[in-house]
Specification:
The protein is an alpha/beta fold. It contains ten helices and eight strands. The protein has an eight-stranded parallel barrel with strand order 1-2-3-4-5-6-7-8, surrounded by five helices. Strand 7 (204-207), helix 9 (215-219) and strand 8 (226-229) form a beta-alpha-beta unit. Helix 7 (138-153) runs parallel beside helix 8 (178-195). It is globular, with a radius of gyration of 17 Å. Bound molecules: phosphoenolpyruvate (PEP). Phosphoenolpyruvate binds at residues 9, 11, 165, 170-171, 207-210, 228-232. Phosphoenolpyruvate binds next to strand 8.
């Protein structure tokens, strides 16, 4: 059985001093952990965090990657650039990128392709809005989002990770129940199984107000292979409790 993966998404938070304190606290507490841990940090802090975690088992993650390889795309960072900083994971299609930067399923699929091409595991984020859930469209939405990535990435699809993040649960303190989350994860696993004989290798993470109190029950579900953690990843005690729940 593969070990679980807990990825922290710092979003646009941090400072040189705060990052150092947070990472040092995590390294001390993480020493015994048997699951994978990644920190998806803002791009300006990649070099700092790369150096801070160099002697630890924590992996470095980015929060986005350009859909382009290089050239006149001001403000963007390419997959090659991320790779130079030792990035192992990269979020693609986070709902905040889809919402505020109008990223389409097609763009997200290309971003996943760019990451895979340089050996970075894209964590493909999918999830429905509250209106879509209430309209009974959850399955339709997440399958459409994942289908674009499967279509664009063919046989490499077993190399991705997926994060199911119901938009209504992100940063709201409102978590999907373990049963609600498991039901969607099972749908995503079946979709991957139809695309690759290696679907069991794919980590399917749950994200959306995961915290120290609810992590264990969510992580105990059959198809929940880890967590994508926003707010709680900025608090070392909380993040370490989630990591402990994933053992
Ligand atoms: C996220 O940003 O991916 C996330 C899950 O945030 P939070 O844990 O704060 O809901």
């Amino acid at each position: 059985m593969k070990s679980k993966l807990i990825a922290g998404n710092w979003k646009m938070n941090g400072s040189l001093a705060a990052n150092q304190a947070l990472v040092e606290a995590l390294i001390v507490g993480f020493a015994q952990a048997r699951c994978g841990v990644a920190l998806c940090v803002p791009a300006p802090y990649l070099a700092q965090v790369q150096s801070l975690i160099a002697e630890s088992r924590i992996d470095l993650g980015a929060q986005d990657v350009s859909e382009h390889v290089s050239g006149a795309f001001t403000g963007e960072a390419s997959a090659d650039m991320l790779r130079e900083f030792g990035v192992r994971y990269c979020l693609v299609g986070h709902s905040e990128r889809r919402q505020y930067h109008t990223e389409t399923d097609a763009v997200v699929a290309v971003k996943a392709q760019r990451a895979l091409a340089v050996g970075i595991t894209p964590i493909v984020c999918v999830g429905e809005t509250l209106a879509q859930r209430e309209a009974g469209e959850t399955e339709l939405v997440v399958k459409r989002q994942l289908a674009a990535v499967i279509h664009a990435n063919g046989h490499c699809i077993s190399e991705i990770a997926v994060a199911y993040e119901p938009v209504w649960a992100i940063g709201t303190g409102r978590t999907a129940s373990p049963a609600q989350a498991q039901a969607v994860h099972a749908v995503l696993r079946a979709q991957l199984q139809a695309a690759t004989p290696h679907a069991d290798r794919v980590h399917i993470l749950y994200g959306g107000s995961m915290n120290a109190a609810n992590a264990a029950e969510l992580l105990a579900q059959a198809d929940i292979d880890g967590g994508l953690v926003g707010g709680a990843s900025l608090k070392p005690v909380d993040f370490l409790s989630i990591i402990a729940a994933a053992q």
